[in-house]
Amino acid sequence: MYGQQYLLHLLLVICLVFCNGQVLQFGTCPDVKTMQYFDVEEFLGQWYEIERFPIWYEQYDPIGIPFSVISTDYKNYAVVYGCKNNESLGLKYISAWILSRQSTLPEEYLSLAYRDVNSVPSVSQIYMEKVNHSATRCSSYWTAHIQPIYFNQDGQK
The Lipocalin/cytosolic fatty-acid binding domain covers which part of the protein (predicted)? Predict the structure, then answer.
């Protein structure tokens, strides 16, 4: 009986992955190497999504994924990564974004961003989807409110 339930759960997860296209993997979120000496003040301002992981679960049930800046030059591009564990299912939800200060990103910066995306464990640029910034797709304006959480050297808030 236990084996049948496990197989049913496994098939359900596989179906969800292939039907919805999200990046959902077995395991727990890894520790990732983030930017040293990240300057929050310099990072603030307007950014455009250039490419991102599909995020179906945010559309139906926002789960609030904490994210980290993997790399940025502050003026042109940024690579942002997020991961949230679902301990009851033994899964992790993974998100990643390539951002730009403009609605497009020159190839030289996109190549740097891909390099940095691919450096994160369990992440690959093959999961990325391009974001359409055409006038018809961007007819409404919205903003995201981002608050930094500061940690000391011991990892305490």
Answer: 64-111
CA distance 109 to 98: 10
Q: Read off the CATH number of the domain in which 21 is found.
A: 2.40.128.20
Among left, alpha and beta (phi > 0; psi -120 to 50; other), residue 58 is alpha
Question: Which residue is associated with the tokens 């999504």?
Answer: 49
Largest CA distance in the chain: 57
Task: Decide if 25 is inside a domain.
Answer: yes
Tokens coding 151 = 């940690």
Which helix or strand (DSSP H or E) is residue 85 part of?
A: strand 77-86
User: Could you tell me if residue 139 is inside a domain?
Assistant: no
Number of CB atoms found within 10 A of residue 46's CB: 9
| Domain presence at residue 138 | no
Number of domains in the chain: 1
Domain of 81 in residue numbering reads as: 2-130
Q: Render 15-51 in DSSP notation, one character per residue.
A: HHHHHH---EEES-PPP----TT--HHHH-S--EEEE
| pLDDT tens profile 19-73 | 333 466 788 888 888 888 889 899 988 888 899 887 655 555 555 677 889 999 9
